[in-house]
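Q: Got a minute? One more chain.
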Amino acid sequence: HLRAARRGRARWAARARWAARMEGGVKDVLVQRIGFHPQGPVAWLFAARGLYKLEEWQLCSEALTHCLRSQKTLKEAQHLLGFCLLHTGQKAAAAAAFLKSVKMANETDWQPLIELHIDNPTLGND
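A: Always. Here it is, folded:
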């Protein structure tokens, strides 16, 4: 995942510039693109997954805020948030998100958490 994150930065930057031209946040972008936006945390989680697959990392992160408020979607949203933060180069925030995800019993997030700390030895020494 870490190597893919590095390769995807150029594509992300172009998409971020496009998203920045859009007025408003993820709700407005979705309304402009498809005519409406999700209602409820489960629908937002599926929207976030779609945005993630399209490599719309910033929009995905914003969509996940609607999921992080619900116990029903919290665990998966926290996991996905770590990868969105990683793809946008926010290493410290990604590490914190993965650590929180691990504490929620997302055991697969041990791998990116360890990789982040090995690749960035000063991470977390603030």
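A: Residues 45 and 61 are 10 Å apart (CA to CA).
Q: Perfect, thanks.
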